[in-house]
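Researcher: Next entry in the queue.
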Amino acid sequence: MPPANEEHPTRLRILEAARRLFHEQGFHATGISTILREADVNSGSLYHYFASKEALLSGVLAWYLDLLRPMVMNPVEGMTEDPIGRIFALLGFYRQGLQMTDFKMGCPIGNLALEVGDDNGAARELIHQNFHNWSEVVCGWLRAAGDRLPATTDRRQLAGFVLTTMEGAMMRARAAKSFEPFDESVAQLRAYFDHLETAARTGPHTGETHGAS
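Model: Structure for this entry, 213 residues:
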C-alpha cells in the first residue's frame, strides 16, 4: 500500500468514509450504500479499488497502520518529552475520545477485533499488526526511560500490559458510561509505574539485561 499522500483522492475518500462509519456504526451495521453516499462516489468507483466490503475493511485496517504515527503517537509525543509521561498522555488521549463521543465509540481497532476477528482471517492479521505497532511505540518509550525502570523489566511485555489496560479500561468505561472504571485502571497502572521507579532507585544499578528488551 503506497503512502497516504500518494493515494488517489477517490480511494482516500472511500477509505476515510469507511473508517469513520466502521468506527461509528460497526462493520456489519454499515452498508455499502452508506459508504457510497458518505464518500460521494458510485459503486463502480468503490469496486474499482476494493473487490468487496471485506477487502475495504482490510484497506481501512492497513490505512490505520499508516495513521498510527500522525494521528496518535506524534501528537502524544509532542505533549511531553518524558517517556513515561507519554504513556499517560496517550491514555489521556483515549479518555478524551470517550468524552468527545459520550462513551459511544471506543478504540476503533479494539472494536473491530471484537466484531470481526473470529471470522475474517485477513482482518484479524491486520488487527494484530495494529496492536503490535502500537505496543512497539510504547516499548520504545519504555526503553528510552532507561534506568528509571529496574534492569529486569521486560519492556515489551510491559508495553503489552499498557495496551491491555487501555483496551479493557475503555471497554468498561463504555459499558458503565462512566469514567470511573477508566480512571481506576489508569490509577493502578500509575501506581505500578511508581513502584517500578522506586525499585529502580533503591535497587542495585546493573544496567539493562537481556530480559529488559
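Model: Confidence is low (pLDDT under 50) at residues 1-5, 206-211.
Researcher: Noted, moving on.
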